[in-house]
Design a protein that fits this description.
Length: 180
């Protein structure tokens, strides 16, 4: 069965087609959930909520653009909606934003460590970092998505980079002291 036919059957509430769609996309969407959630359990909850939204809105998909991109946007928006409800985004003083350059030497730092320290960032910093760095959204887009200003988005990104830079430097220092 082709994707168009599968989407059509899902929009007619065909549970077998919904199960097939879930099997096709759940692992990719779960990895998106992990980027935007604090932990594995929260990512599982977000994935569940995402598919509820997908199945309720699938008839709105008009075959324009990537279906996978449409699914990803719903997944990200579902996670962000949870954080908006929690009031995670505070208005901050944007006057003293200092951008931090963050470079990573892949030989010294594992991807698992990087993902771990990104996931440990405070929510508002992690979400902006992921949206800007990993998913390529502009500060203007992020501001609209999160109901914050572009300056707050830039500030949160700078603070996320500073925290990550500090954690990487601590990690490298501990590695160097262990090898002595």
């Amino acid at each position: 069965m082709g994707l168009k036919q599968l989407i059509q059957k899902c929009s007619n509430n065909d549970t077998q087609a919904q199960s097939e769609l879930y099997q096709l996309f759940s692992s990719k969407l779960f990895s998106v959930c992990l980027k935007y959630c604090k932990n594995y359990a929260e990512a599982e909850d977000n994935l569940q909520d995402t598919f509820v939204t997908i199945f309720s809105k699938i008839s709105q998909y008009n075959n324009k653009g990537s279906f996978e991109g449409w699914l990803k946007r719903i997944t990200i928006n579902t996670a962000l909606q949870r954080y908006r409800k929690q009031g995670v985004f505070e208005i901050i003083d944007e006057s003293n934003i200092e951008d931090v350059e963050l470079t990573v030497d892949e030989d010294d730092i594992s991807i698992d460590f990087l993902l771990q320290i990104i996931q440990e960032l405070p929510d508002r910093y992690r979400l902006v970092f992921n949206l800007y760095v990993l998913d390529g959204y502009s500060h203007k887009d992020i501001a609209e998505m999160l109901s914050i200003t572009s300056g707050t988005s830039k500030s949160n990104l700078a603070r996320a980079r500073k925290i990550l830079k500090d954690r990487i430097e601590e990690y490298k220092t501990s590695l160097n002291s262990q090898s002595l």
